[in-house]
Structure prediction request, 291 residues.
Amino acid sequence: MLDAGLCKYVVISYGHSGLSGGGMRQLTVARTGDEIVFGHFEAVGGYALAARRAMHEFHTGPETWSHIAAGQRKWANLNPNAVMCKQPLSMEEYFNTRFVVEPFRLSDCCLVNDGGRAIVVTSAERARDLKSPPVLITGLGQHNLPSEIHQSSSMAGPTGAKRAGEQALHMAGITLEDVDACEIYDCFTYTVEITLQDYGFFGPGEARDWLQGGTIEPGGRMPVNTSGGQLSEAYLMGLTPLTEAVMQLMGRCGERQLGPNTNTKRAEIILCSDNGGILQSHSCMVLRRNS
Prediction:
């Protein structure tokens, strides 16, 4: 269990330059000969395998993932730094995009970019003297599942998100009812679904109904990936969701700022996720506005 003393640390600033994708290259070269023979290469093959299993177990699929892809694109359209800023995505357009590895279409897959992002972390005491308004880190959790995806018994959950989320919420002293928005690691649309499911926002097979009516979009009751995420803003590993949460809580997001600008609740608490390998590791962080 993580030390509650970590709550004393805060994120005080963030910056970025361009966009990143070296981790995918690492996953490609790590594949073995036997896997490649059966068509399993690169991360998309592994996640497609997990998503296909989820389709069998709780009847998810493109009708669910289309809401995630199109919803996040609406956020990207409000973000001048997003790769997909000027490229709306309708439901019809989603279903017309080509398959990459079934069941994933191109719009189910994250962007591949180069670049970097950074955040500055310091103590809450030190942050009081700084110019930028700090964002408090109030909860952390991590859980790792070591099995390779083709040997895994958790392709359709629970992933590491379940225990990591429980740890982070417990450390922060809150429940999901207190969360105003989520910034979820979204290498693929299915990753968003299974993460939110394992955090407890809905049960297996309930994602499609939960997403109806624009739940995660501008104007929705639970905004998700408000920069456009890795699907539509930029692929910068776990810093894509984390830096967006920091920016939102600092009030530095302009047209996409949570609150009156986007007909949403002003965010006080944001839940962030990071995911490693192919659903093999998971980190969760709770960030709070410094009121």
Notes: The longest helix spans residues 42-58. The beta strands are 9-18, 99-101, 104-105, 115-123, 135-144, 181-183, 269-276, 281-289. Residues 15 and 118 are 5 Å apart (CA to CA).
